[in-house]
Design goal:
By secondary structure, the protein is of the alpha/beta class. Helix content is 39%, strand content 22%. The protein folds into two domains: 3-241, Rossmann fold (3-Layer(aba) Sandwich); 242-286, no CATH class. It contains eleven helices and ten strands. A six-stranded mixed sheet has the order 6-7-8-3-9-10, with helices on both faces. Strands 2-1-4-5 form a four-stranded antiparallel sheet, covered by helices on one side. It is globular and about 65 Å long.
Amino acid sequence: MTALIELDAVSHTFADGSAGLDGCSLTLSGGRRHALLGANGAGKTTLLQHLNGLLRPSAGQLRWRGHAYDYGRAGLSDLRRRVGFVFQNPDRQLFSALVEEDVSFGPLNLGLDEATVRTRVAAALDAVGLAGFGRRPVHQLSFGQKKRVCIAGVLAMEPELLLLDEPMAGLDAPMQAELESLLDRLAAGGVTIILSTHDIDFAWRWADHIHMMAAGRCIASVPAHQLPELEGALQAAGQRLPQVLAMHSELVARGTLPAGAAPRCMDALLAALRAQPTELSGELQV
């Protein structure tokens, strides 16, 4: 798998002397869905801010496709065109009066012509399910709609990598389902996605790769299917086993289900249960 971004012993010390990252090493492959797990203060947001150059390391090195990050003006401009960042709080990212003005800001700064910008804005709004919202005042949007406008603004830059800091925070269940569906569509379209989350059940259901942070370091980085083998790392990262995994293990131990690959979501677990023969169904078949 192609290495999109590599962190080599990256550390970051804030102005007050506190450590955000402490010798963090991590390799992120392209074309995948990555979930970043860890307790508050583990370094998740700090790591994401390093990935698109919002923060610079105090020590260590980051590489994009094998080349060291260039922190000059032109280098950062090119990096941020390729690596888009969506903040946890959309009000930190939205600053224009109208939706279309906000989404067009990035493409206009790239020097694109007006027709190309209009095309990109329309495509980005359509991708996030906000077609027809271009002339809507930003302050009239719901919290979830504001988040989607932020994502549209990044998508209009046509990035290779999308970073999202706690994208589900502040969203109710229906809005979370809508956002998950959007992320699925973007990933299917070839966008590499890295998001931080506290929701282990969502990470297990959604991600291709799971990375666990603790005390400013990545303590585990595995394909998602290997997560059941890492209970120790989960505990160190302040996480529990996904509920569907815990339930599956109990059902296997009771002999209700045969041992095998663990389901990634509750629907899959229920389907496995329904597929098992029951005493009643056996009697009826006789």
